[in-house]
């Protein structure tokens, strides 16, 4: 197993204290990064992450990704603790609740959009400015979309819309930065079915039948692709989509 692929790098992982986000954090810490993890409600998970990895390696900041104040706080605490920002992983997100679109409330729609898409915009904006101010305008932004951002998810159209937005937002920002000579790369990662508590127990058997690999993914499967995208190994990967789904989209 390789180590030190992210040595001397500082990363922010939103929603980084459970599920896919914790898998990303574990891989980043293993590879030598200092990591700021955020969550809005799971404060116990954040404190547990600090304890598990050590306060010299991981800092927890409570954050609402859908607010400017939340991002101002995270960037300020990141720079105060670790001095710079190299990598942002926009991972925090919420799923749909299964409401048919014709019965969905505007509040439901807005909540998913605010966290999944507006949160990504606010994070990308904050990270670009921080990377320019503290890291010579160099860095990597990784937006965690979904296979549902590539193909429609019938039981959650609001989720698909938000994740499809993340995908195209990533493309557009990558082009904008590259064309202006700014050395910050932006890529999207599209997980398939990953073994987290988001998947209802009663749906597991049906979901497994749709996966050519025959099993769910693990959070670290997403963590490993994020290590690659956060490292200098991926210096020519920009504006691209990385699907990790056990063959579902093949």
TrEMBL record:
Residues 9-196 form the Ketoreductase domain. One of its GO terms (biological process) is bile acid metabolic process. Keywords: Oxidoreductase. Pfam families: adh_short_C2. Belongs to the short-chain dehydrogenases/reductases (SDR) family. NCBIfam families: PRK07231.1. This is 3-oxoacyl-ACP reductase.
């Amino acid at each position: 197993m390789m180590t030190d692929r992210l040595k001397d790098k500082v990363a922010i992982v939103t929603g980084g204290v459970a599920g896919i986000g914790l898998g990303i954090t574990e891989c980043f810490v293993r590879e030598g990064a200092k990591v700021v993890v955020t969550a809005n409600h799971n404060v116990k998970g954040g404190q547990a992450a600090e304890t598990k990895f050590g306060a010299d390696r991981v800092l927890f900041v409570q954050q609402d990704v859908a607010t400017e104040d939340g991002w101002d706080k995270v960037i300020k605490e990141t720079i105060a603790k670790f001095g710079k920002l190299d990598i942002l992983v926009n991972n925090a997100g919420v799923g749909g609740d299964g409401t048919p679109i014709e019965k969905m409330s505007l509040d439901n729609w807005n909540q998913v959009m605010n966290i999944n898409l507006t949160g990504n915009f606010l994070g990308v904006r904050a990270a670009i400015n921080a990377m320019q101010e503290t890291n010579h305008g160099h860095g990597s932004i990784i937006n965690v979309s979904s296979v549902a951002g590539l193909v429609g998810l019938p039981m959650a159209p609001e989720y698909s819309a938000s994740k499809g937005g993340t995908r195209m937002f990533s493309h557009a920002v990558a082009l904008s930065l590259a064309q202006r000579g700014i050395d910050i790369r932006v890529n999207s990662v599209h997980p398939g079915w990953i073994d987290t508590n988001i998947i209802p127990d009663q749906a597991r058997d049906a979901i497994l039948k749709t996966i050519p690999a025959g099993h769910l993914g693990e959070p670290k499967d997403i963590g490993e692709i994020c290590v690659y995208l956060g490292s200098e190994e991926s210096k020519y990967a920009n504006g691209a989509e990385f699907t990790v789904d056990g063959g579902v989209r093949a």
